[in-house]
Amino acid sequence: MRKKTWLSWSSGKDSAWALQVLRQSAEYEVSGLFTTINAEFERVAMHAVRVELLRQQAQAVGLPLHLIEIPYPCSNEQYAAVMTDFMAHASNEAVRCMAFGDLYLQDVRSYREERMQGSGIEPVFPLWGRPTRALLEEMLAGGLRACLTCVDPRVLPAAFAGRELTSALLASLPSGIDPCGENGEFHTFVFDGPMFAYPLDIEMGEVVTRDGFVFADCWLRETRGEKQIS
After folding, report:
1. Of these four, 99, 120, 190, 209, which has the most CB atoms within 10 Å of its CB?
2. What angle do the packed helices 76-92 and 106-116 form, to 10 degrees?
3. Contact 190/146 with Cβ under 8 angstroms?
4. pLDDT for the residue 42
5. Predicted confidence (pLDDT) per residue in 123-144, tens digit
6. Which structural domain range is residue 46 located in?
7. Quick check: is 132 in a domain?
């Protein structure tokens, strides 16, 4: 029997591709997504993606979405407490595995593994160790489409915010930038791909700088203008 699995869904390319890989596995059955959101702004932390877009993604991939609200600002202790409660909920729902799209940051993986010890839930990393350039090329060749919603201007020019992640953009990245942004250089929002039943019709909007990062807003075309980045 395949293991009931919930996938950490950031709204970006790595979690989306992790879903694609898991769906091809005979070991895991992804039955839900979970996302931590900033309770004050109602957006995904760092990615700055609207909750409504998260819900639209979940519908497009055909999975229920579990939202985990965290305060802003959020201490490590507050985050740990919220996640402990959520893991207890998942355990009660007979979830056997939680999957993450992490690629090679060992400290992040170790933190997840430590927090899940004794929970009865196994952490799974379907993309772990994959060379990031080859992985991104595989994503793009497979039909994944995403836009950059957050850029760290200390390492990547602010003008990259709001651009679609394409082979041309990959070729234009400055030297030293991880092709998948694994070191936090950028974050993405996926609006189409082989894991989607249909694409999301989005458009890019306002670009703002907050807390040292550059954020590009996006929305579904029919909901344009309902809410800007706070």
Report:
1. 190
2. 60
3. yes
4. 73
5. 999 999 999 999 999 999 999 9
6. 3-223
7. yes
pLDDT above 60 (res 189): yes
How many domains is the chain built from?
1
**Residue 30: φ, ψ to 5°:** -75, 120
* 169: Cβ contacts below 8 Å, ≥ 6 apart: 148, 160, 163
Looking at residue 174, what DSSP letter applies? P
- Helices 13-23 and 132-141 cross at an angle (nearest 10°) of 70
Instruction: Note whether residue 229 is domain-resident.
Output: no
Residue found by looking up tokens 């390319």 in the block: 13
CATH number at residue 67: 3.40.50.620
Beta-bridge partner residues of 146:
190
Q: Report the C-alpha gap between 105 and 57 in whole angstroms.
A: 26
Euclidean distance between the first and the last CA atom of the chain, given in angstroms as a whole number: 46
User: Is 135:180 a contact under the CB 8 Å cutoff?
Assistant: yes
The dihedrals phi and psi of 128, each to the nearest 5 degrees, come to: -60, 130
Residue 78 lies inside a defined structural domain of this protein: yes
Residue 228 lies in a domain: no
More confident residue, 197 or 229: 197
Show the tokens assigned to 23. Answer: 């769906």
pLDDT, residue 226, reads: 44
Is the C-alpha dihedral spanning 192, 56, 15, 61 positive or negative? negative
The pair of three-digit structure tokens given for residue 108, joined into one six-digit string: 């992040």
- pLDDT of res. 44: 85
